[in-house]
Design goal:
The protein is α/β, with parallel strands linked by helices. Helix content is 47%, strand content 8%. The protein folds into 3 domains: 162 residues, Lysozyme, CATH 1.10.530; 178 residues, 3-Layer(aba) Sandwich (Lysozyme-like); 77 residues, no CATH class.
Length: 441
């Protein structure tokens, strides 16, 4: 892991513990501490992986490094003059543009030029050091208070790991909490320190579009007799309810809870318990963070219960488990369950454990297969599930004959397929019925 090398370099160059942590927290936010990290949107637009881009810059086959506006490296150099500077320094020292030590040396030179080096060498506050780097050195588009708190949280993780040298759990490793946390409401419902090292993640569906505070208030009641390590609310905010070092009461399995970081995710109240885009995006980010802090580079999903529970993960592996394997529940809901393979792939790719093989995915997907999957998806939508907000409109549409439905559901009731797609042909029929209703056809 680069974090240890970066910490050692910064300390050798005179940074205080707070200064080193503040800089590293910002580097983590920018690049995940990867010196070859290419801004994600440019991987697609340039058609190159991080490794391919780095190699092409090094061997001269890609000549637009300075002017392409793509963020690159530990601090995501983007502006042309700064990219020119780091490129010139790499060439002058005869090292790769993606060399870790070269980039750290150049960061120190830049900090000196920005007038920040001495301040970071004497910083006595993690948050002040983090804000110094964010507001005066990185200067991203979003420098809001929320971003300041988030980056200071990243920085605090490194301070706790390398400066405070606190230990807990198996093997004396620090078990820190996620810096992505925005709300903390600690629950009494837990069993204390885990009896096993963390090597599993268990995502759940809340069955409700709750806030982080409301979920925390529910877990704070001893009468609830349940908890999770984290929760993700309807707006994508992360709540901490049980310290990551402690075993939550979440999956109806003592064995699994001792090994798994458990995450409750806001969802619809009805099957397939769909989660919105903000919730899913935060789930990906949180899984990446959990894996990184626990030294994992791969997140695995086997789908098969017996195979998963019999599997002993390697030191760099984390495995997904689900509540439905241990109790008569549908949790985490079919919506997320069907996406756990994608979740594992995306997290692993972000961790650098393996790249997503887009070509292979394209080869595996045939037109017939797509039609089959689309038909399965349509079946999920072809029922009477709907929100209460549309009740008056739906009643009028039925009574006026505007909507006739698609036959009967499994219970023999008229099935109006409220969530299903609408074709142009169906739209034309609706418009025609409305025109007749108004005496215009």
């Amino acid at each position: 892991m680069n974090e240890s090398s970066i910490w050692t370099f910064l300390k050798k160059n005179g940074f205080s513990d707070c200064g080193a942590a503040g800089l590293m927290g910002n580097m983590y936010a920018e690049s995940g501490l990867s010196p070859i990290n290419l801004q994600n949107t440019y991987n697609k637009s340039l058609g190159m992986t991080d490794e391919q881009y780095t190699e092409a810059v090094d061997n001269g086959t890609y000549q637009n490094f300075v002017r392409d506006k793509a963020g690159y490296g530990l601090v995501q150099w983007t502006f042309w003059s700064r990219k020119q500077g780091v490129l010139d320094y790499a060439k002058s020292t005869n090292r790769s543009i993606g060399n870790l030590d070269m980039q750290l040396e150049y960061v120190v030179k830049e900090l000196q030029a920005f007038g920040l080096l001495n301040a970071l060498k004497n910083a006595a506050s993690v948050k002040d050091a983090s804000n110094m780097v964010l507001l005066q050195f990185e200067k991203p588009a979003d420098m809001s208070e929320r971003v300041q708190e988030q980056r200071a949280g990243f920085a605090q993780v490194y301070y706790d790991k390398f400066a405070a040298q606190a230990t807990s759990g198996e093997g004396g490793k620090k078990m820190s909490n996620s810096p992505l946390t925005e709300v903390t409401v600690l629950s009494p419902n837990h069993s204390g320190t885990r009896a096993h090292a963390i090597d599993r993640i268990s995502p759940h569906c809340v069955v409700g579009q709750c806030s982080a505070e409301a979920l925390g208030a529910w877990f704070a009641k001893s009468s609830t007799k349940a908890s999770s390590n984290y929760g993700i609310d309807k707006d994508g905010r992360v709540g901490l309810y049980v310290d990551e070092s402690n075993r939550s009461w979440c999956t109806s399995s003592s064995s699994n809870d001792n090994r798994a970081v458990t995450i409750e995710c806001a969802s619809d109240t009805y099957a397939p318990y769909r989660m919105n885009d903000d919730v899913y995006a935060t789930l990906v980010n949180l899984c990446v963070d959990i894996c990184r802090r626990n030294g994992k580079t791969k997140l695995l999903w086997f789908e098969d219960k017996e195979k998963t529970l019999a599997y002993e993960p390697a030191d760099n592996e984390m495995v997904i488990t689900v509540h439905r394997w241990f109790a008569n529940k549908s949790c985490p809901g079919d919506w997320l369950y069907s996406r756990l393979g994608n979740l594992a792939n995306e997290v692993t790719a972000r961790l650098g454990g393996a790249a997503l093989d887009d070509d292979k995915e394209d080869e595996d997907m045939t037109l017939d297969k797509f039609k089959e999957l689309m038909q399965e998806y349509r079946k999920e939508l072809q029922d009477n599930d709907c929100g209460t907000w549309s009740a008056e409109a739906r009643e009028w549409a039925i009574s006026s004959g505007m909507i006739n439905g698609i036959g009967n559901d499994e219970k023999g009731n008229p099935n109006y397929a409220w969530a299903d797609t609408l074709t142009r042909e169906q739209a034309a029929a609706l418009f025609y019925r409305f025109a007749k209703l108004m005496g215009r056809a």
